[in-house]
Design a protein that fits this description.
heterodimer, A: mainly alpha, Sodium/glucose cotransporter, B: alpha+beta, Immunoglobulin-like, seven-stranded mixed sheet, four-stranded antiparallel sheet, flat
Chain lengths: 477, 244
Amino acid sequence: MNVFSLHFLIVLSIYFLCILGIAIFGLRKTHTEDDFLTASRSIGPWIGGAVLAATQISAGTLVGTVGRHYATGVSWVWVWLGMWFGWLISAVFVGPKLREFGAVTIPDYLAVRFKSETARALSAIFIVLGYMILLVAQYQACGVIFQAIFGVKPIYAMMTLILSTLLYTTLGGVRSSSYIDFLQIVIVVSGLLFAVPVLAHHFGGIRLAGEYLTSLDGRLTGWWYNGKQLFGYSLAFGLAMAAAPYEMVRFYSMRDKATVRYAIGVCFLFQAVIASCVLLMGVLTRAIFPNLQSPDQASSIMALNVLPPFVGSLFIVALISAIMSNVNSILLVASAGLSHDIYGKMINPGSSDQRRLLLNRASIVLLSFAPVWFALRRYSDVQSIVIVETRFLASFFFVPIIIGLNSTRGGSASAIGSMLGGFGGCLVWSVWASGRPTNIDAVEVGIGVSGALYFLLSTITQQGSKANLDGAMRSGT
Amino acid sequence: MNNTKRLARSIHFVVVLALSCHSASAQTGSYKLTHFDCDIRIADPHHVAVTALIQIASDAGHFPLSLTLVHYSTQEICDLRIVDQRKGPISTARNLTNGALVVSIPWAEGPAVANSGIAFRVGYEVVDTSSDISRIPLPVPNARTAFGERLVQIAVVLPPGGISFGDTFPTLSWQNQSRGETALGNVPSLAMIHWKPVGSVRLADRIFASSVLTDAGMLAILLAGSLVWWLRSRRDARNQISAD
């Protein structure tokens, strides 16, 4: 065992002890389904903001985005603008309104707003399916990290990840995961803030790194992607962020509407730091190790070979904890889709609170193992898998959630039509455009089809009225 | 049961379809690095000699093979020579920019070591007359190693009576006071070594290394954060008791 592995194991053990402590704290405070899924709506702005950032900052960011900057240089940074635009939409048009609505899950909201159990079932099934894809990215990233550090097979890394995440997800629900998310984001941000100067110092400065990268490939410091491509990626991330169920359920756990707005502001602060550091980390790692076998290795190789042992270990722990945080959020949302929406509302509406809570925990265990099979096959790099998931998510949820919350227009037919049409449009375009040069992104097609169907069907069926929306809001609360 | 199987098959189909239809375009070239053995000999604070034996294989056609060296503004790379294994010189084209020296090697110049591979030896001297050399540019070929293999060997030899201190990159294991070695999975663009004659290394030289300061700073932040957290929870608990 080398010095780094020893440091890493010590830091990881201390971190897991902290997580265990917080999970036990969460378990003692969790008695009902509402405690488990919304922490009794007690989370404040700072913890809430950190939770929102931690939920978004996943392997997709610390492995995938670092890898994307490593491979393609600085131009990918513009995608963050799309993401922040998505947060703005969320802060103005989604978060506070959903919090006021007071539902437990997104399918809950869709079912009440559009008076449709089919919309509930469809959205619950899509959440399970869509998040399985995102879990594949998280598991794959975890496999890459452990393989780089210990040389172990990815399957062992994935099993370790699943078991440790299951521990705190099934024990404490949203309350313990919120406090753990706060700890995670502090480690991630401080790890990044220390890592970047060390990288720059090792290479001999950021300016020299820029000149060196330009001589490797001029596009690394210029435009790797053209404007239309960046617009497509930004749109996918932004719209998916504005309507992401696993981010939105976090709003439900906050105290009130004002807390949601403050929390989004706090989340921006964390993200601005993270975006800048991730950009510099990716390009500086490229300057130090210009020819890595896979861009996904950039974070772990950098932490393993360049950073000092303690900071490097902490950064890897931050990486793993970000993955755990994301897996935890996804599992909470996907299991709620199965237990609360499909079982509790459709199969057995009279089931007791305790029974649904038990089923929720069982669903988490079941859903956590399913994506392992896909992750072991490595269909693509981590960031590409995240992009695929965001495209489908935006195409499926954006129109019914945003328009549903902000307009009286639309009923069950328009909601169902827009969700299915958005998903279908995105899938067909993704398959058709694969390997072909095109300037139209699948998310643009998906959103376009979804929006068109929503308006068309709401016009044909004449569904929706002010009374309908107000009634839905009242019954939600 | 049939319905469940059909549903599982459909979900599998859609997930695989979605995962397969987009992937990153980060890969450049298809050369494979099969051997990289680099020897760095520090003569004095202003002169360092570098030699490297490089073997490369290609499984998909031939395209321009190149070596890239970081160009530090105060340094000069002198006596650059590239020879095949029989010590015959290989002609190259060189392009010096602000950040790098790019050396292009025609594929046909190197003798084959396998069905479709070449081996060559690179040598040069790094000279810096204005300051001590701590960062040494290494020749980075446009080739990748296989995942998980540690084919990149780097050895550093200090001048007699010299000793390393502070930050070193890559991390070396010292065989004796003057020779350090490491094996990596990928070729770094530089090696960073700080050294001084034995007896002139002070405690401050070891303490004020960026790695020590970074580790200490991180630890301090975590301890301070934990303290603030603990004080806040105590205050909240006291407020709760007085409110009750």
